[in-house]
Design brief:
Shape: globular
Helix content: 25-40%
Low-confidence stretches: 1-13
Number of strands: 4
Strand order of the largest sheet: 1-4-3-2
Mean pLDDT: 89
Largest sheet: 4 strands, parallel
Oligomer: single chain
Order of helices and strands: HEHEHHEHEH
Structural class: alpha/beta
């Protein structure tokens, strides 16, 4: 799931706006796309909301992805689906509740922005009024060499991350 990089504000850009502006933009995207959750944010918008303390960021990738591909420091991991599992994590909502209250905005990050859509939908159904998907995910889409990490996503946006 990508968006045109030239049409979105970049990390550190004054064009991102304040948290309320970013949240409004996320909601507008949801309305335009007919989403069943609050909205979509770009990686740069997610970082700005996280830095401002305006939304909780949750990584929903697998433990293996988190450890070997990289992760954002101090961001909790609540696996949407364990590595090799065919079904979503049955304890997802309980584990999410340990990190985010239903009344606060919450943003979900996965590899490419697909599992995080599912997480946002389930969270919304469970009462999280402002559940958001982070577009493009941590690694973005496949590039012409069929590799991730350079075409969209958290890492390609130059946002902070570490590797175990």
């Amino acid at each position: 799931m990508t968006s045109d990089p030239s049409s979105r504000p970049q990390a550190g850009s004054a064009d991102l706006g304040d948290p309320q502006t970013i949240l409004a933009r996320a909601g507008q995207r949801a309305t335009a796309k007919g989403l069943n959750y609050f909205g979509d944010v770009t990686p740069a918008e997610a970082w700005a909301l996280h830095q401002a303390g305006a939304a909780t960021l949750i990584d929903v990738r697998t433990q293996a992805e988190w450890a070997y591909v990289g992760h954002i420091e101090a961001v909790p991991l609540v696996q949407w689906r364990a590595y090799g599992a065919e079904q979503p994590n049955p304890d997802f909502l309980a584990q999410l509740g340990q990190h985010a209250a239903t009344k606060q905005p919450v943003m979900f990050l996965c590899r490419s922005g697909v599992r995080s859509q599912s997480a946002a939908s389930v969270a919304t159904a469970a009462g999280y009024a402002q559940a958001m998907n982070i577009l493009e995910g941590f690694e973005g889409d496949l590039d012409e060499r069929k590799q991730r990490g350079s075409k969209g996503g958290w890492r390609a946006a130059g946002l902070p991350w570490v590797q175990s």
